[in-house]
Design brief:
The complex is a heterodimer of chains A (464) and B (87). Chain A has 464 residues and is of the alpha+beta class. Chain A is built from 16 helices and twelve strands. Chain A has helices spanning 6-11, 20-30, 34-64, 68-82, 164-185, 208-220, 256-264, 272-284, 322-325, 335-340, 350-370, 376-380, 384-387, 390-403, 414-437, 453-463; strands at 84-88, 101-107, 110-118, 121-127, 133-140, 146-152, 233-238, 241-247, 295-296, 299-300, 310-312, 326-328. The chains are: A alpha+beta (464), B alpha+beta (87). The interface between A and B is large, with 53 and 40 residues.
Chain lengths: 464, 87
């Protein structure tokens, strides 16, 4: 690669005329309307209240059963929800997507470290019809006014993009996905703003990232063995604006040292458990950003890119499990999943599978009650939590929180509710798959980012 | 042009450590020699996800790699375009 000198670069002629105003108009046409942004904030907040209440009840019940860990989690939840951010440098930066800042949360004199992700602004990329890529900075000011600024990007490599073609491919893929949802769900997929956009970044207006991060934490409460791997995450709406707080994790990223330890130890099986737990978590959450850099201290952090939409393989055989016939619209991007594929004999023990199976059984039982398939006598024999559908309602509400959106009149967009229902069902199917097989499935599908981790590791080691 | 980035280590009291420069080698690849060994080896062996999370970008990709670091930084991956934080 030849590097051009500063003088050469300065003398490079401006090849493409850039019309920012027109690009802005184009962008506004496909972005959400400001009115629905505020309506969705309220709607999301109402759903969050519901699910955090259910979460509270669930943890209290666990605590009453003598679960020490549930008590700790509950304390951290209330600490993060009610504590005061005493030190934060939270702000929207003009470059980079990283708006997260470390913060100290003070509650009743005790302080914990957390990561504050304010959702008062977003950064995304937009491809104008003139083939110019714009960086779009949206921000909500203190009065709740939404403003958007577009600035052309001169060098795509500055933002980690190789070429405009790469963006066009993504747009095409997104169009394909929209068509797919239209067919399988019988809906107008253009009304699905969440994660059905080319850059997967244009979702901050309805706080999709924040909703996914919070949901990963709440759903992890349902599965006891997962409790240890998703740090407590809460949604907040305070003087810093709407955003999330994730309990800080101390430890190292899941870097080369950890990988070396597994592959070069001579006895990789001793590492089966942390890897299996992480991989199940990444699969269950449809984590598309579970890279080495988002596994810190054995925890799955930064879960904003989890719970992407599912796609259904039309050619899949009927004999396949439901969870194998549906796959995430984005490539699952998990280091634990990658490593797991090299060890086909690693499976969860019976005890470890049980929480997954219990969840599926509880949800299915509640469904049978609703469908009047159980007699009153059978219903009376069930534990209270199953009869009242604690788990089923929590899962349902969490997926509504992730996917459901309202229009500018505050009315729920029916398409988004349909998708929330399907995604909740797919989540239960994934839990069932893990419960039955003890590990996530291996997707062999086109465009999947699937490669043999061991080969790559060995190759790298031999060349370095 | 993103030809340089700075890695900011985190001190124990959560303040910023001394910035570490990542620039380009003469062959156009990213120069990670000043980074902590662990981080350097991790980047070399595993690369870094591109912003669409569809592939990995490696230090040999030079500018593109540095651009990706700056675009995807977070509190655990502390990279900046300049050694001092912009106000």
């Amino acid at each position: 690669m030849r590097r051009s000198s500063a003088a050469e670069r300065l003398s490079e002629p401006e090849l493409i005329p850039v019309d920012v105003e027109r690009a802005h108009e184009e962008y506004e046409r496909c972005a959400e309307t400001p009115e629905s942004v505020y309506e969705n904030l309220d709607h999301g907040h109402a759903l969050y209240e519901t699910i955090s209440e259910s979460r509270q009840t669930l943890l209290e019940k666990r605590e009453a059963e003598g679960d020490e860990f549930a008590r700790e989690r509950r304390q951290v939840y209330s600490h993060l929800e009610q504590g005061k951010l005493v030190h934060t440098r939270a702000k929207l930066e003009n470059e980079g997507r990283g708006v997260t800042r470390p913060a100290i949360v003070d509650h009743d004199g005790s302080q914990i470290l957390a990561f504050h992700k304010p959702f008062t602004g977003s950064l995304e990329l937009f491809l104008g019809s003139d083939d110019v890529v714009y960086r779009v900075v949206s921000s909500l000011d203190a009065r709740g006014q939404l403003t958007r600024k577009l600035a052309p990007i001169e060098n795509l490599r500055d933002v980690g993009i190789d070429s405009v073609d790469q963006i066009k491919e993504n747009i095409q893929a997104a169009e394909g996905q929209r068509e797919h949802y239209s067919q399988i769900y019988g809906i107008d997929a253009h009304r699905l703003t969440h994660r059905a956009n080319p850059f997967r970044l244009r979702d901050i207006d309805s706080h999709a990232e924040s909703r996914a991060a919070v949901s990963a934490s709440i759903l992890s409460e349902l599965l006891k063995n997962k409790e240890r791997i998703v740090p407590v995450t809460v949604a907040r709406n305070d003087e810093h604006g709407p955003g999330t707080l994730q309990q800080g994790v101390e430890g190292e990223i899941f870097g080369i040292e950890q990988v070396k330890r597994i592959y070069q130890s001579g006895d990789p099986d001793q590492y089966a458990y942390p890897i299996l737990d992480l991989a199940c978590g990444q699969f269950l959450n449809y984590e598309t950003d579970g890279t080495a850099y988002n596994v810190v201290g054995g925890k799955l952090i930064d879960n904003g890119y989890s719970f992407v939409l599912s796609m259904q393989d039309p050619n899949a055989e009927e004999s396949l499990h439901h969870a194998e016939r549906h796959y995430p619209a984005g490539p699952l991007n998990g280091i634990a999943l990658d490593i797991l594929h090299d060890f086909p004999h690693w499976e969860l023990d019976e005890d470890e599978r049980q929480p997954y199976l219990d969840l599926v059984r509880d949800v299915n039982t509640y469904r049978s009650i609703l469908q009047k398939k159980l007699t009153l006598r059978e219903q009376r024999a069930l534990p209270d939590s199953v009869r009242e559908g604690d788990a089923a309602r929590l899962v349902n509400n969490v997926f509504r929180y992730i996917f459901e959106r309202v229009d500018e009149n505050g009315e729920v967009i029916p398409e988004t509710r349909t998708v929330a229902f399907h995604e909740a069902r797919n989540f239960i199917a994934r839990a069932h798959y893990i419960g039955m097989n003890g590990r996530p499935p291996r997707f062999e599908l086109p465009k999947r980012r699937m490669r043999n981790f061991r080969e790559r590791f060995e190759k790298k080691r031999s060349t370095s | 042009m993103a030809t340089a980035a700075y890695y900011i280590p985190l001190n124990k009291d959560f303040t910023d450590g001394t910035p570490v420069l990542i620039d380009l080698n003469s062959d156009g690849s990213a120069n990670l020699s000043r980074l902590p060994t662990d981080l350097k080896q991790t980047f070399e062996a595993m690369g870094f996800p591109d912003i669409f999370h569809r592939t990995e970008i490696f230090p040999k990709d030079g500018e593109l790699f540095i651009g990706s670091l700056l675009e995807s930084r977070n509190p655990y991956l502390r990279f900046r375009a300049s050694p001092k934080e912009r106000s």
